[in-house]
Amino acid sequence: MLTAALAPLRHRPFRHLAVGRAATMLGNAVAPIALGFAVLDLTGSVRDLGLVVGARSLTNVLFLLFGGVLADRLPRQAVMVASLSAAALTQGAVAALVLTDTATISLLVVLGAVNGVLSGLAWPAAAALVPQTVPAELLQSANAVNRLGINAAMIGGASLGGLLVAGAGPGWGLLVDALTFALAAVAFSRIRVAAVARPATNRPHPLRDLREGWGEFVARSWVWVVVLGFLLINFAYASSVNVLGPRIADETIGRFAWGLVLAAQTAGMVAGAALALRIRVRRFLLLGVLCMGVDAVLLVTLAWTSSVWLLIGTAFVAGVAVEQFSIAWETSMQRHIPADRLARVYSYDALGSFLAIPLGQIAIGPVAEVLGYQRTLLLAAGIVLVAVLGMLADPGVRRLDSSSSAAVSDEQPERPSTAVPDGPPDPATSVLSSVDTAPAR
Question: Which of 9, 54, 63, 96 is deepest in the core (most CB within 10 A)?
Fold first, then answer.
């Protein structure tokens, strides 16, 4: 069974993709720690840190849609190589400024904004490239293996970031981040897959590309309903955990214990990805949406108890649960959206899902001042449950069959697999296509 679950690693393009994404996430886990302390060492101002981080977040969101158009027009691995190489240079410049004590807030804001642009261009390409690296019947396993590597890299990156900042200084942490971008660029440059982009003579104006992507996005109710649901979930959950969580921890369980809670959630995500390697259900998206209800349980637990062990246990279960949704979502999108439009649909997905995060983070402080921490967390839990119930109310979410063919539309014939295997198919996995079948979300 384990051999069957790891079958995507038999395909060379997927191996390079998995290494590239894991390397990127390793650096992304180091960077916030290193950058945060670099700015605080420079000015000691949380406001300045917010400006640097906010500039990156803003440009990231603004360029997601253009990234989707680009990834559906050009070879996706080429988009990744170009964006990752540029990110290595810009993050290397940030590291050099910090290491030489020549950094200023204005320079860090500008470079952060550039990095946000590059991330917005790269994200849709990375997500849409997966179906080109494995046969359709291996998509669920491929997404699970990919998420397993990403989550493990995040755990390792957070630990490495703390060690580097404490032992060598934040500049060295930023340099490691730049090197991981370069490593990822090398990995993506070695991916060889068939193209899905239209011939140059057939490409419409980019605005028509955006309209076409929007048409694909709204054509399937399960897509836009889930994105709308996650707009609410991210608004309530991300702000509660990232803003109220540390403040409540300071007054109750302490910072070290809060770190353990967050680590338990990430460990649960690793375990959840491993579990998803073995799950075979026809209504995988339905299962994933049901699992998101556990986020509400974690918020209620944070509101009603200061028991460290109960919080750790609930956070671990929440991590396992959210990975079932993440992998179900990736697999469903890759199976049911036409391959040459997938990146644009991903970009609308990311825009809708991520837009509410900064809004929630801004709003939750004033709300908590009026209602108090406990009532605010319970209100956030209620919003999460409303979002889950709203997603479940859609027949498309409830009935989507995970065993159907990959990346086809009602008007288009099924596309052949573009993966390039290293050898003959594994007998244990080649039969899966007939019986069974994913943000940050």
Answer: 63
Contact criterion met (CB below 8 Å) for 7 and 429? yes
Q: How far apart are CA 358 and CA 173, in angstroms?
A: 25
For 119-154, the three-class secondary structure string (H helix, E strand, C coil) is HHHHHHHHHHHHHHCCCHHHHHHHHHHHHHHHHHHH
**Where residue 35 sits, what CATH number does that domain have?**
1.20.1250.20
Beta bridge partners of residue 11, listed in sequence order: 421
* DSSP, residue by residue, 34-50: HHHHHHHHHT--HHHHH
Give domain status of residue 200, yes or no.
no
Flag whether 386 is in a domain: yes
Q: Provide φ and ψ at 403, rounded to 5°.
A: -95, 0
How far, in Å, CA of 195 to CA of 183, rounded? 23
Q: What's the mean pLDDT when you consider all of the chain?
A: 78
CA distances from 288 to 25, 41, 238, 331 (A): 23, 42, 18, 11
Phi-psi region of 169 (alpha: psi -120 to 50; beta: other; left: phi over 0): left
142 assigned to some structural domain = no
Count the Cβ atoms, other than its own, within 10 Å of residue 411: 6
Host domain of residue 362: 206-404+426-441
pLDDT at 193 over 50: yes
Tokens standing for residue 358: 């900064």
Is 167 in the same domain as 57?
A: yes
pLDDT number for residue 127: 76
* 265-302 pLDDT per residue, tens: 888 888 888 888 777 778 888 999 999 999 999 999 98
Three-class secondary structure assignment of 254-316: CHHHHHHHHHHHHHHHHHHHHHHCCCCCCCHHHHHHHHCHHHHHHHHHHHHCCCHHHHHHHHH
To 10 degrees, what angle do helices 255-276 and 139-167 make?
160
Which residues have a Cβ under 8 Å from the Cβ of 33 and sit 6 or more positions away? 158, 161, 162, 165, 170, 173
How many other C-beta atoms lie within 10 A of the C-beta of residue 440? 15
Query: Residues 332-352, buried b or exposed e (16+ Cβ, 10 A)?
Result: bbbbbbbbbbbbbbbbbbbbb
What distances in angstroms separate CA 278 from CA 124, 264, 265, 269, 338, one per listed residue? 27, 22, 20, 15, 26
pLDDT at 210 over 60: yes
